[in-house]
Design goal:
With 83 residues, the chain is mainly β. The chain has strands at residues 3-6, 10-14, 20-24, 39-44, 53-58, 62-67, 72-76. A hairpin with a 3-residue loop joins β1 and β2.
């Protein structure tokens, strides 16, 4: 793990290979696994498997990452303009 970001009730991890993992409370889809299930252990975010992530960020109920080309990906609760 080269980087981590902690949100309100979830954590994002970034590996040296650019793979992204998440765990914690899955409410609002903030973990990025396509559902709202929670996870006690880090799970790869499969939707980003082909993306080389460089930075990870967590909000209270949302998450985002930036890839090596500068593209931004967001997910989770988009209320109040968060996403």
């Amino acid at each position: 793990v080269t980087s981590a970001s902690c949100g309100g009730y979830h954590t994002l991890l970034l590996s040296s290979e650019g793979m992204m993992y998440s765990f914690g409370n899955g409410l609002s889809g903030r973990l990025g696994h396509g559902d709202t299930r929670s996870s006690d252990f880090p799970q790869e975010i499969e939707a980003l498997r082909q993306v080389h992530v460089k930075r990870v960020y967590s909000g209270w109920a949302h998450s985002l990452c930036i890839d090596r080309d500068g593209c931004c990906y967001t997910w989770g609760n988009g209320g109040n303009g968060r996403l």
